[in-house]
Automatic annotation (TrEMBL), chains A, B:
A Pfam family matched in the record: 2-Hacid_dh_C
UniProt xrefs under InterPro entries: D-isomer_DH_NAD-bd (IPR006140), NAD(P)-bd_dom_sf (IPR036291)
Gene3D superfamilies in UniProt: NAD(P)-binding Rossmann-like Domain (3.40.50.720)
Stretches of the chain forming a coiled coil according to its record: none
Name of protein: D-2-hydroxyacid dehydrogenase
Amino acid sequence: MTHQPAISILSRDAQQYAALLTQASSDLTLCQVLDTVPADFQCAQTEVLLCDPDLGAKAVRHMPSLRWVQSTWAGVAPLLCEPQPDWQLTGIKGIFGPQMREFVLTYLLYFVRRVEAFQTLQRQSLWAPLRPGILRGKTLGLAGVGDIGRSVAEAASGLGMKVHGLSLRSRDCSTVEQYFSPSEKVAFAASVDYLVGLLPATDATAHLIDADMLAALPPHGVVINAGRASTLDHSALRECLQRGHLAGAVLDVLPSEPLPDDDPLWRTPNCLITQHTAALSHPEEIARIFINNVQKYRDGQPLNYTVDWHNGY
Amino acid sequence: MTHQPAISILSRDAQQYAALLTQASSDLTLCQVLDTVPADFQCAQTEVLLCDPDLGAKAVRHMPSLRWVQSTWAGVAPLLCEPQPDWQLTGIKGIFGPQMREFVLTYLLYFVRRVEAFQTLQRQSLWAPLRPGILRGKTLGLAGVGDIGRSVAEAASGLGMKVHGLSLRSRDCSTVEQYFSPSEKVAFAASVDYLVGLLPATDATAHLIDADMLAALPPHGVVINAGRASTLDHSALRECLQRGHLAGAVLDVLPSEPLPDDDPLWRTPNCLITQHTAALSHPEEIARIFINNVQKYRDGQPLNYTVDWHNGY
């Protein structure tokens, strides 16, 4: 008989996950199903944990039998404590790409097609046609070319854009015409029209997108950050936008979330705040990935989307 | 020696065209180069006319030697007088597709990703994440599947959308999963999420997009008209938007242009006016097409992009 691990769920969508798991497989052993972590949390039985990383981070040290943690988010940074524990960590891949490519195109096109300027004319009932720009032929700079970046690269290429990549390791996306390493980041920025940040939060990426990189972008440049907030120097970005060096910026990830209502980023010119909605976890899709991994776990096979603890993604 | 036809130019960009033509070929015989049509206009020599269709329409009957008219626009309706004259008419193809596909994606994404709602939250410095929609898996309805429509269809398909086509004749776009004829237009509208009008102005297309079609669209539907204004019943559209039956509309072409400042379309809820800028004629690209056709004309070869007088495109 196959080994049935005790599974716990710690997530804001815990009840929904429990229903989805029970529906998909009647022989799963659910232990704890919680949407917050109680102060005195302890669970000796749990062997497998499905969790939102910020909730899991508060609980994993109180789960002595833990062998495997499945994150419900793409970003697993909250779980990456030191020293490395003896359980393995798996992430989510393959479901954020289609959302992210539409998010990136939305806001590149918003600036390039001058949507706001047309709306300003409309409020005045003023017929004064403007000449919009075009993405075709422009160069998109992708800082971070993983699973999600590849999807964005392909969509941009489909519209006739060139794609340059800034990458710490992966160089296997054929849509990227030219790769740059972090030490070449200023040359990378100087080679592109638009910069899209999709970097994970690691020591190596902290403030990687800095004043030097931003200064190397062209004045019609647009910066979109949908990776992690720690990868971008927000003071340098604000300074660029205030003196009109860049055409615009879109921040999906913020230094603190919720962004406090007195944070100056809310009122920085041409800076749009999209409130961490670029690519959302849909519990149905996460549950499907988890159930597939549970089957592999039971069968003693390697799990999908394991996180390299040292690289952090 | 090759026959050198006398060429005239009637266009708002006449001087630019004259410079481009002279630059490209030193042996062209330029006759009239005008950016308006004088009241007493006459030109006995002109054999070939490059013109903005509205200007050309005022001049062609005063050009007795005319053999060929090259339009600078995609829409040639102003030139289609009756009875059919003995000169041939050529249009422009191949340069509007890349602009149009970006225009359509801009505004589909604008509504689907809820850009305006995020901006409203931002003006209040209010963190209250909304769940954006996604184009992937939705169905785009293309009313008019010619050269430009094919480019839009391919871009939509690249994002994982299905494409349905309403077409009078052409059925040769492999990206279109299902074709409908004009008599099936209500079923067509009922089968799609978004409707993009790219129809030419002909007798057969007048008010083809009418109240019945609009009523068959879903409440999250968006209508984008970038074909010709005569193909859409604007009163019916306004009525739909006012009672919130549709999520939005984008009108690139208007019943009269410039749109008068007291026209209610300026202030119809969720109706965006883009002032006939979806796909602009760049003189460099038009000149290239014309010069190529001049070579064919001299050599007695069939011209590119000839307009069928009866079909009107």
